[in-house]
Amino acid sequence: MSVNNARRFVEKLRQGQNFRKKMLGLVVCILLSMSCSLVYAGMGIPSGSTLPEFEIEMPTLPEMRACLGIKGGRAFSLSQIPAKLIVVEFFRIFCHKCHQNARIANQLYKSIKEDKELSKNIKMIGIGLASKSKEIAVYKQKFKVEFPLFPDPQKKAQTKSKVKHVPLTIVVDQSGKVLVSHLGVIGNLEAFLGKIRKHHKAL
Predict the structure, then answer these.
(1) What letter would DSSP give residue 150?
(2) How far apart are alpha carbons 50 and 48 in whole angstroms?
(3) Which residues partner with 173 through β-bridges?
(4) Which of 22, 85, 160, 191 has CA atoms 20 to 30 A from the CA of 154?
(5) Tens digits of residue pLDDT in 131-149
(6) What are the boundaries of each domain within the chain?
(7) Does the predicted TM-score (pTM) go above 0.85?
(8) Distance in angstroms (rounded) separating the CA atoms of residues 41 and 164
(9) What is the homologous superfamily of the domain 56-201 according to CATH?
(10) Per the omega criterion (within 30 degrees of 0), is the bond before 52 cis?
């Protein structure tokens, strides 16, 4: 074998090795991505499960109580809200993804509020896990949230619901059954709203 031919052979061999390394790296990245997605998806509250009952601080503002249709007492539970479906957004005050989802949650609330049929039977609230009233007030003002937000100073909601990863947006019926569950920033608002409409139509 001539020197030139030997060089060409070595170069082709190197190119083949580099190609195999690149392909192996690509396969590893894909597998890791799929694994992370599956793990992350399994961290939410799955559809079909039942959300445990927990107490929420009674809102001090009369308009908030009127909005939700709840009365008196120091605390209330989701089952006391007179609505066929309740949209609950779990978030944390200092969660970056929750900040991203705040704008989308606002749009979701407006879409429900502006729909005559949906607004009759659906209520929406947000629960700031392990948060205080003052923090909720700042969060609400900063992100211009129009739907009721509630603190969780004693971590009752966090402990009972067992929600560890946020933002988590769920839709429950009057019995507490989870009909829709989305962990993370809602990327397709229309698709999420479509699921709500589907369950509302089935009521």
Answers:
(1) E
(2) 7
(3) 85
(4) 85
(5) 999 999 999 999 999 999 9
(6) 1-41, 56-201
(7) no
(8) 12
(9) Glutaredoxin (3.40.30.10)
(10) no
